[in-house]
Give the backbone structure.
Amino acid sequence: MQSDFDTSDCYTIEGKLALPYTYFAGRVGSRFITTLRDQHKIMGVRCAACDTVFVPPRQTCERCLGDLTDSWCEVGSRGRVVNFTVVRYPDRHLPRPVPFVLAMILLEGADTPIVHLLEGIPPEQVAVDMAVEAVFAETTTNTIRDIDHFKPCDA
Amino acid sequence: MKKNRNVGIIGVGQSVYSSHREEVNQPEMINEAVVEALESAGVTIDDVECIVHGNMELFEMIHQPDLWHVLGTGAYGKETLRVTTGGTTGATLVAAADHLVASGLHDVVLAIGFEKLQEGHTTGGITNMADPLWGRQLQTGALTGMTAAQMIDEFGEERAKKVAMKYRIQMDQHAMKNNKAHRRLGLSPDQAEELAENSPQLVGELRMIHMCSQSDGACAMVFASEEKAKALCDQPAWIKDHITAHREEMFCIFGDAPVLSTHRYAARKLFGRCGITNPREEIDLFEMYDPSSWWGSDWLREFLLLEGDAHLKMIENDEIAIDGAFPVNPSGGVIASNPIGATAMVRVAEAALQVMGRAGDHQVPKTVNQALASGFGGTMWTVLFLLTREVPS
């Protein structure tokens, strides 16, 4: 590979584009967060036509387009690991120092899994189907991080 | 354009356009338009074979929005295609849907354009179209005072300013008839002088009152093959032809040398191959992508292949009013509502509603046999559609 390019007197522009954004959570997303924050309850919505409980909740069933706005149901704060990965590269945007585990967790009563941090267990001991429970955050951020992480529990 | 088979627009749905939609997230807002489009077409999501989705990349800082908008689009388990061509996205979505049906690949296609401009930073996103070395520190994003300066130079300050303001107030009077429009200000002609003087200047003589809004909103359209369109819809709007013309150099790269605009180029070609020799007589209505009232006024001359001051006279003589001889933007146009990824689609959708006779309070008081709709994007990108009431032969 050639690497001896003549770059003398070549100018590099140091730029930075600011891309600020906000995100409107909507009625359904907002209620999920406020219920989690104020009552430490994890809420889903049930589509009766598709017999499916969605967590996180959504206003519309993406399969039949039914309106789920008022189809709330509480799901458990315990569940099982459906799948997981071990994050091993450090970066500023990551939520924890590496290595840490991101797991897909199917909560009791839900039909769709959510992604969250799994802690309190060495990464090499994490296994599919293990039982876990939510640990709620002590201070709120009004985000899904109001669940601080999940930890292993008795089945 | 040679087509394998005809394509009809059989349903249109639009969310309400607004500066803020805090009560719905992106897929929820899109769902409003999808549900209305399906109802309007008399079909269910099960009848739709493919979904085409588009918006301006980077405007909401969302990667692959078509995938996570599935919660609202109905694309679960279906073929989908994402299209993004800047300001023209909405019109390109219609072109893509037309090709998907005309080719025989699909019989029924749903196309969706959306934007939630309040969630992002539009001008910040647009600045990256400029060259980092020559232009990025020295440009004004999507706002330009150039057309105002040119019109003032050509027609004199008093007349040019009067025409631009008359166009603006006319568009607001149209928007007042469209309950989905974002900005409905209730302007009256006697405010023209005061507005021309006191509206804040953005760039040169381009003032706040002349410029389009930044809106949140979504538009959805249902397309069907000729056979299905006839079975499902009493009066589809047929896609007779469309053309895309695009040039990407800086506006001033040739100095003051006259440059053929992509609008004029596209119109000349489209009219030529559709046998239109007198567009003002043969076309009943025009939904134009008019980002400001300066551009809207100036571009009439380009799209209608006019010379001299014929376009100014059309505005001065109320020809572009909803009940005029050549109605322009009965919906209120882009100046009233501008959810960018949807905006160019709304032009075709509104033209279709007029052909179908389903535009409600802003339906023009005549039969629309032939309608023109345009999309515009940076730096010079034109998409032009011709819709008809009769099935194209």
